[in-house]
Design brief:
Length: 120
């Protein structure tokens, strides 16, 4: 079993910053990629940023230049540094990981979500 635990959400004023963290634990052999998604009320879940083991990144156009994804491989942890936050960034943020578990099982694992609220 593999779990993702997120932290770092909260309330921030527009223009401010937050850093989200997500740590994977459990029967992990390796992690191929980790990423962050978000879902605003009444909207579909969307990719915010993703990072593969080889360092490749992918960002939503709406966050390019403001958000940075990074990873501490030794800690199975991924971070999302969010700067210049806007009211439209308000959403539940979910961590996701593409995991190879012991037993050669490939799993897509999701965290429970952390709420980010940006006040204007």
């Amino acid at each position: 079993q593999v779990q993702l635990v997120e932290s770092g959400g909260g309330l921030v004023q527009a223009g401010g910053s937050l850093r989200l963290s997500c740590t994977a634990s459990g029967s992990i052999f390796s992690i191929n990629a980790m990423g962050w998604y978000r879902q605003a009320p009444g909207k579909q879940r969307e990719l915010v940023a993703a990072l593969t083991t080889d360092g490749s990144t992918n960002y939503a156009d709406s966050v390019k230049g403001r958000f940075t994804i990074s990873r501490a491989n030794a800690k199975n942890t991924v971070y999302l540094q969010m700067n210049s936050l806007k009211s439209e960034d308000t959403a539940d943020y979910y961590c996701s990981a593409d995991v190879i578990a012991y037993g050669n099982r490939r799993l897509e694992v999701w965290g429970q979500g952390t709420l980010v609220t940006v006040s204007s």
